[in-house]
Amino acid sequence: MRKVILTSIILSLGTALAAQDPTYTQTVTGKTTTVTILEKTSGAKIDPMIYGQMLEDCNDAVVYGGVCDENGNENPQVIEQLKPLRIPVMRWPAGTAIYDYEWKKGIGPKEKRGAVDELVWGGKEYYTFGTDEFIQWCEKIGSEPYINISMGNNSMITASLGEAVDWVEYVNGPATSQMGAMRAANGHPDPYNVKYWCIGNENYLAKKPIHKSETADEYADLLLLWAKTLKTVCPELSLLGVGYNAPWNKVVLDKCGDQLDFLTLHYYMSAKVKDNNIEEPWKTLFGPIRFEESLKVNIALLKDYNSRSGRAENPLRYSIDEWNNRHSVFADDKYSFTRKDDRRQFDVAGTAGMLNVFLRNSHYVGMANYIFPVNGHGLLKTVGNDDAYKSANYHVFDLYRKYMEGSALSAKVEGPGMTGIRLGDLRMDGEKDMDKETVLDLCFIDCAASAGEDGSINVAVSNRCYDKSQKVKIEVPEGYKLVEAIGIQSEDVTASNTPESRDNVKPAPVKVKANTLTLKPCGLAILRFLPE
Predict the structure, then answer these.
(1) In whole angstroms, how far apart are CA 493 and each of 124, 152, 390, 489?
(2) Where would I find the beta strands (DSSP E) of 373-454?
């Protein structure tokens, strides 16, 4: 096995983009953690779309029983409580469910839309929350709609290029076009002008019985045809293509990169939960590092492609199109995956860890969509069709959206942690490209830093230790003073919000003295500094 100290990747390709990459290092040493912010300005702009979300009708009350009931009546509390998050982008109909989603069944009078069996996830697709309802719901919560098109290869479900062309025209075409006239007849004469469209979802996997796995070449050849065709219908589209592992991604970039704005990647943390506690918690809480190491390999591909294709001014970037912390809960003598387990205090640290990776790699991660905003692993949990409450993860997104914007800053972390962690032992699903035998020394404290447009420096620190508080000192450039410190902490790392007790996990001011604080196990704090 080989031993390395984690650092951000800095590959010099002679471009201005590479020269601006933020740096991040961590060294395990001592009893107190020192977080040093190495600069006060940066060209590494943070795209707010990393705080995106994803909706999918996956038989876990995300759409029906979450956003609305089976008749399409919206939950007003979901709308009101999502508004403050300013969710920048919302992906739909989302992931695997697109393979049997037939969009034309979800337009027109609701009373004429019929429910069908959902073939992938089970349950019913009622089609009462269709294209028009989704786009208009996004407008209500202040989010940019993002539509994912199926590019299936099984004739039992209509997933043709013609259907995709019709969908784009229905959404974005003028009322004088055939599909635009249909939209106008359905009550919306003006085009919706939806910008973001993805072609396919995890095409490298088989979705029995409705999709056969494809090779990179098979997918890329079809993607090129579909992308060029859709752009003849609407040249302004920003298209996303399906990414996977490094060999797959290289093929797609080389064949189709000039048609794309994003390549998608899917990563999932995972936790084994028994009696509310995580089994071997370090494997979960350090999991985002495994993602980051895999991401670095793909960043190198992206940098090379952007350099070769002259896209320094308009670089192709990654969208982490699906991510969260999946819980497998022990019951009946086995661990079983469930989306229904509460988001707990330990999920706060895990979620912060993933967001910190996005921030540290701002040049290359331009979008990310957490699953889900409602129910499932969600930010909100509904109670009936007219009530909802905030999960622990809601507050993480709220704080990051408020404070962690602007541009990413370089940082250094030195403090206690764990040594000799084998990368392959960390729990992260979706990565394919890192050396699992790599051994890392990792600090318990994780961080990301940003420079706000108001001249502020904002530092997010999370404690990846499951059972011990950590003392943390923040060192910022000279001339800055602390003006605010807020965090999400609990005495119990398994604490969660419930319908009966909705504020068990919530933000609160953090006590800081001489830029030093004590962070509880799995706690998160964001500190805001302004020029004196």
Answers:
(1) 36, 43, 17, 8
(2) 380-382, 388-390, 407-409, 411-415, 417-422, 428-429, 439-443, 445-451
Domain boundary among 356, 374, 404: 404
Label residue 158 by pLDDT band (50, 70, 90).
Answer: low
Q: Residues 89, 37: one domain?
A: no
Same domain, 435 and 386: no
At which of 381, 404, 427 does a domain end? 404
Torsion angle defined by CA atoms of residues 326, 331, 333 and 335, in that order, rounded to the nearest 10 degrees = 0
Nearest to residue 339, comparing CAs of 375, 304, 303? Answer: 375
Burial 348-372 (b: 16+ CB within 10 A, else e): bbbbbbbbbbbbbbbbbbbbbbbbb
Q: Exposed, middle or buried: residue 264 (CB in 10 Å: 0-12, 13-18, 19+)?
A: buried
The span from the CA of 268 to the CA of 325, in Å, is: 6
pLDDT band, residue 156 (cuts 50/70/90): low
- Tell me what pLDDT residue 5 has: 41
Please choose, from the candidates 85, 88, 15, 23, the residue with its C-alpha nearest in 3D space to the C-alpha of residue 50.
88
Q: Where are the alpha helices (DSSP H) in 189-329?
A: 216-233, 246-256, 281-285, 287-308
Q: Residue 84: is the preceding peptide bond cis (ω within 30°)?
A: no
- Tokens representing 68 are 């609305």
Question: What pLDDT does 8 receive?
Answer: 39
- Kindly report whether the global pTM for this prediction surpasses the value 0.70: yes
The mean per-residue pLDDT over the stretch 32-46 comes to 95
Are residues 11 and 129 both part of a single domain?
Answer: no
For residue 61, which phi and psi values (nearest 5 degrees)? Answer: 60, 35
162 burial via Cβ count (<10 Å: 0-12, 13-18, 19+): exposed
SS3 58: coil
Strands (E), 73-180: 89-92, 116-117, 124-125, 144-149
Rg (CA), the chain: 23
The whole-angstrom separation of Cα 359 and Cα 44 is 9
Q: What is the average per-residue pLDDT within 165-192?
A: 98
Question: Is the CB of residue 375 less than 8 Å from the CB of residue 343?
Answer: no
pLDDT band at 2 (very low <50, low <70, confident <90, very high): very low
Number of domains in the chain: 2
